[in-house]
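Run log, item B.
One chain of 536 residues. Sequence copied directly from the ordering sheet:
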Amino acid sequence: MRSQETETEAPHRSPVEDEPDALLASYRRRLRTFDLPVSRIAWAGAMAVFGLALVLRLWGLGSIGELIFDETYYVKDGYTLTQTGVEMDWPEEPDAAFEAGDVDSYEETGSYVVHPPLGKWLIGAGTLLLGVDSPWGWRISSAVLGSAAVLMLTFIARRLFRSTTAGLIAGLLFAVDGMALVHARTSLLDPFLMVFALAAFGALLVDRDRFRERLALAAARMHLAAETPPTLGVSGGLRPWRLLAGVLLGMACAVKWSGLYFVAVFGIMTVLWDWWARRTVAQRRWLLGGFVLDAVPAFFAVVGTALLTYLASWAGWFASSIGYNRHLAADEGVATGFGPIDSLISLWLYHRQAYEFHVGLDSEHPYAAHPAGWLLQLRPTNFYYRSYDHGENGCEVAKCGAHILDVGNPLIWWLGTAAILVTVVLGIVHRDGRAWAALSGLVGGYLPWLMYTDRTIFTFYAIAFEPWLILCLTYVLSLVIGAPDAERERRLAGGLFVGSLLVLIVMVSAFFWPVWTGQVLDVDQWEYRMWLPSWT
């Protein structure tokens, strides 16, 4: 899809007066910076999509009063973080008592955990808000942030593709997808990782556009004044959106270490964007200038800020005396006697232990899945299943079941997988930067898992990169609709096809709703929804 700028003549202005505006417009076109004001229609559409997402994620959120899947770890950890500042040990088999309201039976020793604390702090915040004795309190943070991610993706796609229609398509797809729904309705860590990575991507998009606008203005001004450009080019100046991205990426890492891959990919991406922009305006030393003026500051803005943010997430552990391995430096005989340094050494040694746990995790699990099958949803993760006989929990036939299967809408994921391949081809053939931007989150969120196929890993990790799969699908669907300057019949045909496909996708989501939300179904109805043998 291409954006168009409308140029209108100003009869009262002379050609000399028009020259600055024309030159600036020329640079802006070359740098692909276009004004796309947020109209009332855009806001109304975005709010409608957000409202749909919120309803789907909040409807019956507390209907299952049990800890679901890995909630058994993270909800209890989140609660003890709010009480003591660190995760605490619990007695054997504590879930039944916890679910019944006995929430203070945790022990007086810190718990060994292998994930950073931020995601659990967010879960704990929900228990403070709505009560730890309520399933709503366990899950409200996931539901609200999962809905916010839909709104973010709507505006991110709109900015990336310069199209309100594209933004609404992306938002709708994310709002109704099963994997996004299941994660937003349960308290695991991965959806928080996704939210912060997506927000960082959006911040870098804004930073990119603002830098290009500044570069266009500077290039036009120097051209008109016949000034000699600085040796290394124009400085990018203060870039608050890039700093914000660093904070958000640090928060992603503070949820799960796999956020590090997003730091690496997005850090490289933002520098490549700057290099391309400098080269486009014919800056003579664009590579050197980009390294000195962009790459080095970007390292400190993104990586340095992310590191400081990550360390800040451990504030509760630093402030405690009972956190697990809190005094490991002294225990290992490597303490320096200077408290702050010893705390950092203890944290480093603790991280080394956790890393060894992760790389050695190869125990068997019935829902472990090779990452090669994640995109096609070949082995989704079973989060919850209960079987009921006639008369139990509303079962009106001989046998019923209530199931929460973390499977994405098959049409979204299967078409999205094909769209990824198309996006790669178009990115190579047409050198389309939008394509590579849409692929960036897959490079950071998906490809690294192909290096760890010997570990026990699961399809539900795919939530971290799902927004970029949807961006690829949106990119291809936008091409099907056609460019704004395409013939009316062409756009009408494309729009009807895409509109019909979206209706079908929504219908498929409605069909799968019961197995995404734990509704009681008779066995026949349940089997109709198990489209692949590997889903059972």
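Observations after the first pass:
- Confidence is low (pLDDT under 50) at residues 1-17.
- The chain has 20 helices and three strands.
Flagged for discussion on Thursday.
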